[in-house]
């Protein structure tokens, strides 16, 4: 289930930045969670403990400034590595939702 | 007299429980389907088109794979979380389960069925276990993620190393394993495969264009690069999922291989290693598998094109069929003689069974986020 706090956060950010786009809806959040677990999980592990891709647990991501930096990594990928750019498939809001989801320590507890 | 017999068999039934009450199921038509999100597997019956049991408690099964004992009784399931689970297909229960490493990516079983090898990411390396007891018999560490583990005849295994860009072979036919470096493969090998005749060990590269082949019939196999310039003319597309080389297509003296970063299947002359043709496909190919006893190869794709399968004729290199089995098609497995292909649709929670000659759906089986499908006939295939 989508984390209401992450949803709220995305909403606050989108409106706060005066973005014209609407924030991530609940249906979309469910789809995003599915995508993160299943499709990011194919490289990073279904529990984000790593695979071909590095671990994406809150602890492993703690060295990043914040979800915005992480969202950019997700959208642009990491050149010359197997981390692909997701810009063609994800919007900025969606990437930010994923970044917050990954950095949120409660995400793992919900399993 | 007959009444006594009936009484006696009742006593027997109660004493032995399930295993005698139900007639034993032959394992030759069985298979194991990974349910990746729930850490469970289904035992399926190919002839009945049914799931006959579910085994739970297998951990993180993303990228899980399965090997079978030569008698088709035991399935060895290799999980992402380092779990190695031995399932008894006769008694339909977990016979043994160990956590052998932190993060693993696949396994192989020796030709005599005595040894099971596991390829690990973290800590990197190969570990070999007694197939009977799952006791470790060899630990071959590597400072790299290991990929593309294959079985070679006479208790040998070969693999490639993602970080260090080289390939190795281990010979476990005597007490001490003998490990040989086969040579450099090129940057970031992502998977490898052995041809059915045990001759060609082919390593696919992610970090640069091309593939590397080793002739394992040679005394000292040496790396041979091929297709090193496919796709250099254009921009690569993002690769949302690593292709697989396992179960590749070999027909008419050709290899059919997934291009990396292109929506194409590459055809290579097996003798000269020259590119003979390319087939434009619906998406980034993941598996390119040959339909047994036919000229056809079946292909599935990375997201966002993963609701589709295409069938290519190896003679014309043309796409002859495009099918839409369901959402997130992750894997295909052919019946050993190729009359059926079983397809997993992860996001529609079902397995779809096609008649390969009519290319029509014959049956469907519900499953929870199914990924890999593995039939027991794999027990008799070289390289797995």
Distance, first to last CA of chain B: 53 Å
CATH class of chain A: Mainly Alpha
C-alpha Rg of chain A, in Å? 13 Å
Question: Count of helices of chain A?
Answer: 6
CATH architecture of chain A: Orthogonal Bundle
State the CATH topology of chain A.
Cytochrome Bc1 Complex, Chain D, domain 2
Biggest interface: A-B, 22 and 29 residues
- Give me the count of strands of chain B: 32
* Sheet/helix structural class of chain B: mainly beta
Give the neighbour order of strands across the main sheet of chain B: 3-2-1-32
What would the principal axes of the Cα set say about the shape of chain B?
globular
User: Can you count the beta strands of chain A?
Assistant: 0
Structure description:
The complex is a heterodimer of chains A (111) and B (384). Chain A contains six helices and no strands. Chain A has 111 residues and is mostly helical. In chain A, helix 1 (4-16) crosses helix 5 (92-103) and helix 2 crosses helix 5 (92-103). The N and C termini of chain A lie close together (10 Å). By secondary structure, chain B is mainly β. Chain B has a domain at 100-235: YVTN repeat-like/Quinoprotein amine dehydrogenase (Methylamine Dehydrogenase, Chain H, 7 Propeller). Chain B is built from two helices and 32 strands. Chain B has a four-stranded antiparallel beta sheet, with no helix packed on it. Chain B has a four-stranded antiparallel beta sheet with strand order 4-5-6-7, with no helix packed on it. Chain B has a four-stranded antiparallel beta sheet with strand order 8-9-10-11, with no helix packed on it. In chain B, strand 24 and strand 25 (296-301) form a beta hairpin. The longest helix of chain B is centred in the N-terminal third of the chain and has 15 residues, at 2-16. Chain B is globular, with a radius of gyration of 21 Å. The interface between A and B is medium-sized, with 22 and 29 residues.
């Amino acid at each position: 289930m989508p984390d209401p706090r992450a949803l709220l956060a995305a909403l606050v950010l989108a409106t706060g930045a005066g973005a014209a786009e609407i924030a991530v809806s609940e249906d979309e959040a469910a789809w995003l969670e599915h995508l993160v677990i299943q499709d990011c999980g194919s490289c990073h592990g279904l529990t984000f403990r790593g695979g071909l891709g590095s671990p994406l647990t809150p602890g492993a991501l703690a060295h990043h400034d914040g979800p915005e930096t992480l969202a950019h990594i997700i959208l642009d990928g990491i050149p010359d590595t197997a981390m692909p750019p997701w810009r063609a498939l994800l919007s900025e809001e969606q990437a930010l939702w994923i970044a917050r989801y990954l950095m949120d320590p409660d995400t793992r507890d919900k399993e | 007299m007959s009444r006594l017999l009936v009484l006696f068999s009742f006593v027997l039934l109660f004493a032995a429980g399930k295993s005698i009450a139900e007639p034993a199921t032959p394992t030759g038509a069985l298979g194991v389907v990974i349910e990746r999100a729930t850490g469970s597997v289904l035992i399926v019956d190919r002839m009945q088109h049914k799931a006959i049991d579910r085994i739970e408690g297998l951990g993180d099964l993303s990228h899980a794979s399965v090997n079978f004992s030569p008698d088709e009784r035991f399935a060895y399931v290799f999980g992402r979380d380092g779990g190695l689970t031995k399932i008894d297909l006769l008694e339909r229960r977990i016979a043994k389960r160990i956590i052998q490493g932190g993060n693993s990516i696949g396994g192989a079983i020796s030709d005599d069925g005595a040894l099971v090898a596991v390829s690990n990411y973290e800590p990197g390396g190969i570990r070999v276990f007694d197939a009977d007891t799952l006791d470790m018999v060899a630990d071959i560490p590597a400072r790299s993620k290991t990929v593309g583990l294959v079985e070679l005849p006479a208790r040998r295994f070969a693999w490639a190393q993602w970080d260090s860009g080289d390939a190795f072979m281990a010979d476990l036919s005597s007490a001490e394993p003998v490990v040989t470096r086969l040579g450099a493969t090129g940057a970031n090998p992502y998977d490898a495969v052995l041809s059915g005749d045990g001759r060609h060990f082919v390593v696919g590269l992610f970090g640069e264009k091309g593939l590397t082949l080793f002739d394992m019939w040679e005394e000292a196999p040496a790396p041979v690069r091929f297709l090193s310039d496919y796709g250099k003319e254009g921009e690569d597309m993002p690769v949302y999922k690593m292709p697989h080389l396992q179960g590749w297509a070999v027909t008419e003296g050709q290899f059919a291989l997934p291009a990396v970063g292109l929506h194409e299947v590459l055809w290579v002359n097996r003798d000269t290693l020259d590119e003979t043709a390319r087939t434009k496909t619906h998406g980034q190919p993941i598996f390119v598998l040959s339909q047994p006893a036919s000229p056809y190869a079946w292909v599935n794709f990375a997201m966002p094109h993963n609701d589709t399968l295409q069938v290519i004729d190896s003679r014309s290199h043309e796409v002859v069929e495009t099918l839409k089995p369901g959402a997130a098609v992750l894997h295909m497995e052919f019946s050993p003689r190729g009359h059926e292909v079983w397809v997993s649709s992860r996001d529609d929670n079902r397995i779809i069974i096609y008649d390969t000659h009519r290319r029509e759906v014959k049956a469907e089986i519900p499953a929870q986020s199914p990924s890999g499908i593995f039939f027991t006939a794999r027990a008799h295939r070289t390289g797995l």
